[in-house]
Amino acid sequence: MSKTLIAPSVLAADFANLQRDVEMINNSEADWFHIDIMDGVFVPNISYGMPVLKAITQHAKKTIDVHLMIIDPDRYIKEFAALGADILTVHYEACTHLHRTLQAIKNEGMKAGVAINPHTSVDLLKDIINDIDVVLIMSVNPGFGGQSFIENTFNKVQRLKEIISINNANTLIEIDGGVTDKNAGELSKAGADVLVAGSYVFKSDDQPNTIKNLKQIANS
Ligand code: DX5
Ligand code: ZN
Fold first, then answer.
1. Does the CB atom of residue 36 touch ligand 1 within 6 A?
2. I need a labelling partner for 91 at 20 to 30 A (CA). Which of 19, 35, 45, 67 fits?
3. Which ligand is nearest to the CA of 113?
4. 28-57: buried (b, 16+ CB within 10 Å) or exposed (e) per residue?
5. Ligand nearest, relative to CA of residue 200
C-alpha cells in the first residue's frame, strides 16, 4: 500500500509571514501545498487569488494542489497552469460540462481533480472516474477553515474506494476539512490517499512536528 500523503492548507497560514510558513512546509514531512481559492459566490467567503498564489509558488518546493471553490472554473484553467499548479481541482457542483473541464485541465499539463460537497454522492462520479486523477471529498462545507469533521465522510471514502477498484482506476482520494490526529488513522484505513490539514497544523505550537505526527498516524 502506498503512503498516505499530508497536504497542509495554506489558508490557515499567517499571511503576514507567508514566506516563513511556505518554508516551514518545504522543510517538513508534508507532501503537497493545498491552496484554497474562493470567489465569494460558490462559497460564502473570499480567500486569495493569483498574486498570492504566485508568491507561494516562488518559494514552494513541493506539489501545488489548487482547490478551486469558484463558479465556472474553465475561465482560469490556463492561468493556474501558468502560475505553477500541478493539480487543479474543480467542484462537481460548479461544472456543467465536467468531462470537458477535466480534459481542458489535462491539456494544460496538470492533474485533474474533482471536489464534492458533503451532500454530493460519490456515485455521481462513477461514469467519469477513469478521467479523474484526484477526488477531493469535502469533510466540511467548503468556505472556511476550522470546522468540525462530518462523520459520514468515512462511508463516502469506502464507497469511492469500491468505485475506483471496480473501474480499475488510479484515482487518488483526498480528504479536506476538519482533519486531525483523531480521524487521520481511520481515514487512511478507509482508503484515503491524501489528507489536507489547515488549522490542525497551523494552530499547533510545533508545526513541523504536528505534520510529522499526522503522517505517522496516517501510515501506522
Ligand atoms: C475549506 C477548505 C479547506 C480548509 C481546511 O473550504 O477547502 O482546505 O483550509 O481547513 P481545516 O483543516 O482547518 O478544516
Ligand atoms: Zn481545500
1. yes
2. 19
3. 2
4. bebbbbbbbbbbeebbeeebbeeeebeebb
5. 1
- In this prediction, residue 109 carries a pLDDT of 98
Tell me how far the alpha carbon of residue 39 lies from the centroid of ligand 1, in angstroms. Answer: 15
Give CA–CA dist 217/220, Å, rounded. Answer: 5
Residue 2 pLDDT class (50, 70, 90 cuts): confident
What mean pLDDT do residues 132-146 have? 99
CATH number at residue 32: 3.20.20.70
Would you say the CB of residue 9 lies under 6 angstroms from ligand 1?
A: yes
Q: Which of 34, 2, 218 is nearest to 138 (CA)?
A: 34
List the grid coordinates of 35.
Answer: 491552496
Residue 39 DSSP SS3: strand
113 lines ligand 1 (CB under 6 A): no
pLDDT for 21: 98
Q: Is the CB of 136 under 6 A from ligand 1?
A: no
**Residue where the block lists cell 506539489:** 63
Q: Which residues are catalytic?
A: 36, 176
Residue 95's domain spans which residues? 5-218
Number of domain units in the chain: 1
Q: Which ligand 1 atom is nearest residue 12's CA?
A: 9
